[in-house]
Design brief:
The protein has 188 residues and is mostly helical. Helix content is 67%, strand content 3%.
Length: 188
């Protein structure tokens, strides 16, 4: 048996030998990083309402459509049926968190599932309202522009919560969840 070096700070011998399993398939990961990139561009870099801002919004809309389809036909952890957050699952998960006996999930835990579905809904609504602002019927409508801006800002708030939760959960479970969305692999 070959021993794996565990000299890295904070690493336990059992961590180094921990087998990895594929959880996030390429479509899930491409969707995730496409949305991360697009949100960064549209919220912080590109000029609101201009050509590249709109193109980026259409890329997000396309990515959402692909992800929704993949949620029904994709791999195990990509399917909505694998992580649909029922009220019972969510309340049990919250209670387990308070009791300090939270289960580890290979895919999304119930709260992460709620976050993912909320973000997807906000992204879809933002893309829709952005597209609507280009239509003659809604051209110059301030209420629509304000709604679009509110949805985009809501995404920004939830993204910060999501990223913070990923860091906290990575520390709590001693597993780099952000890196797993790059590699697709998590501890088995």
């Amino acid at each position: 048996m070959t021993m794996v070096s565990t000299e890295k700070e904070g690493m336990q011998p059992s961590d180094a030998a921990q087998p990895m399993t594929r959880v996030w398939d390429p479509i899930v990961r491409i969707f995730h990083w496409t949305v991360v990139t697009a949100c960064t561009l549209n919220l912080f870099i590109l000029e609101e309402g201009k050509y590249w801002h709109r193109v980026t919004g259409y890329v997000v809309a396309t990515a959402i459509a692909v992800r929704v389809i993949w949620g029904f036909i994709g791999t195990k952890h990509a399917r909505f049926g694998d992580f649909l957050p029922t009220p019972g699952k969510v309340s049990n998960h919250i209670q387990d968190l308070f009791d300090g006996k939270e289960k580890r999930y290979l895919g999304h835990n119930p709260l992460a599932s709620v976050m993912m579905l909320c973000l997807m809904a906000l992204l879809a609504a933002t893309a829709l309202t952005g597209w609507m602002t280009t239509l003659d019927a809604f051209w110059g409508e301030k209420w629509l522009e304000q709604l679009h801006r509110l949805l985009a800002n809501s995404i920004m708030v939830l993204v910060f919560v999501h990223a913070g939760a990923a860091v906290v959960e990575s520390l709590r479970h001693k597993e780099n969840l952000i890196w797993s969305m790059v590699t697709g692999r998590k501890k088995a």
